[in-house]
Design goal:
The protein has 14 helices and 18 strands. It has helices at residues 80-93, 96-112, 128-132, 149-163, 185-196, 211-218, 222-229, 242-248, 279-284, 292-297, 317-327, 333-339, 342-347, 378-382, and strands at 5-8, 11-12, 20-21, 24-28, 31-36, 45-46, 50-54, 56-61, 115-123, 137-144, 171-177, 202-206, 255-259, 273-277, 301-304, 365-369, 391-394, 397-398. The structure holds zinc ion. Zinc ion (ZN) is lined by residues 60, 62, 121, 205, 258, 307.
Length: 399
């Protein structure tokens, strides 16, 4: 094959199959042409003491908050609405130019850490242009807000025109009704319906804090005070519980339920749903132990997100998996790596083209430096918090 390049490295980790020590991966044009054991093909390039892993998939971030790092410290779980107020005040303080600069900074950070597919939630779809020029795949979720009927009508029109806009090979449009406390039920239904056409994922923040439950069940508590203070309170039309939301958004398209910190593992969760777990943000707010293992045991997909820099120290998706390994060492590392790559691609509806090192998929991978020591299992080395200098290939080209 003319122009094909065969790389070798200390480890090739396809995620969809067993790791290959000194294996090879052959790239032809933008795709993976072969993945072999050591000795089958003569490599053209030796990448040395690295693991070749699939490009990282960040299922949840808000790039427009990338200027907020360290400025809105996460609160304890009982004062979550104070943090939300801080985020709103921060957003209002930024000019459109500043917001675009923030988006580009966040994007640069995602790229530096080896992200090759991102799901970004953006007010007004503001990250579309920046992402359109960037070397990665993206699903841009236009955020929808609206508890009161008139505000919801505006959002509905925005949603329709957003979903009717053009897409490109690497950029897809989707919708995110923000959360059950900020979006009326009929707008959530509408978002699901509009997403059904192109089978685009729908994302909604769900069960992030315990106070949401009190609001939905009893229409009271800190969220009510928060919404009243913003003059957007409207009890009529709000959902009653998490299960009803998961049901009404279900048009068989992929569904991303962001956080699920307080959703009972026994809840009825529709097919093709993903729990997007943001581990370091979850820990920063001091939420109780996350039920992701219980969700997985029930067959619910669980993928990772970084959330935004308003609650997270960086946008390194692999650092999320490493963090979980540190606090929940019983979870097998290979499962965590899958959650950081292939599972995320499945969640965002892109697993046919990326997320693992398989013949025919896009050549999207990261050369991750490994420590200079022996280990029987390469995952042990991958999960050591070592060098963050990563080289990333996207569609057959080094970025
Ligand atoms: Zn979020």
């Amino acid at each position: 094959m003319a122009d094909a390049v065969t790389y070798t490295a200390r480890w090739i980790v396809p995620v969809s199959s067993e790791p290959l020590e000194n294996g090879t991966i052959t790239v032809y044009k933008s795709k993976i042409a072969a993945v072999y054991d050591r000795g089958r093909l003569k490599p053209d390039v030796d990448l040395g003491n690295v693991a070749i892993i699939p490009g990282l998939v960040n299922c949840h971030t808000h790039l427009d908050l990338s200027g907020a790092r360290g400025k809105i410290p996460p609160t304890d779980p009982d004062h979550f609405t104070d943090w939300l107020k801080g985020v709103i005040a921060y957003r209002r303080s930024r000019t459109p130019e500043q917001t675009q600069a923030d988006i580009r900074d966040g994007l640069a950070e995602c790229l530096r850490y080896g992200t090759t597919l991102v799901g970004d939630i953006a007010a007004d779809g503001a990250s579309w242009e920046a992402l359109a020029e960037a070397p990665l795949r993206a699903v841009v979720f236009h955020e929808l807000i609206g508890l009161k009927p008139d505000r919801a009508d505006v959002s509905r029109r925005e949603a329709e025109s957003w979903m009717n806009g053009g897409e490109s090979q690497l950029r897809r449009r989707a919708l995110s009704p923000h959360a059950p406390y900020s979006v009326r039920k009929d707008l959530i239904v509408e978002a699901g319906r509009l997403s059904r056409v192109g089978k685009r994922p729908t994302a909604i923040h769900l069960g992030e804090s315990r106070d949401e439950i009190e609001l939905l069940h009893r229409r009271r508590g800190p969220f009510r005070e928060f919404l009243e203070s913003m003059a957007v309170w409207c009890a009529d039309g709000m959902a009653d519980d998490f299960s009803s939301i998961m049901k009404i958004v279900d048009f068989r398209q992929p569904k991303l339920f962001i956080h699920m910190n307080h959703v009972a593992p026994s809840a009825r969760i529709p097919r093709n749903s993903t729990c997007v777990f943001c581990p370091r943000t979850h820990a920063a707010f001091g939420h109780p132990r996350h039920p992701f293992r219980e969700f997985q045991a029930r067959g619910v997909r669980v993928a990772f997100g970084t959330d935004s820099l308003a609650s997270n120290p960086d946008l390194d998706l692999l650092a999320e998996a490493r963090f979980v390994h540190a606090i929940r060492p019983e979870v097998p590392r290979d499962e965590l790596l899958r959650m950081a790559t292939l599972t995320g691609a499945e969640a965002l509806g892109w697993a046919n083209e990326t997320g693992s090192l398989e013949v025919g998929k896009s050549a999207d991978f990261v050369a991750l430096p490994l420590p200079n020591r022996d280990a029987v299992d390469v995952h042990e080395l991958i999960f050591e918090d070592a060098n963050r200098e990563r080289k990333t290939m996207f569609r057959g080209e080094w970025r």
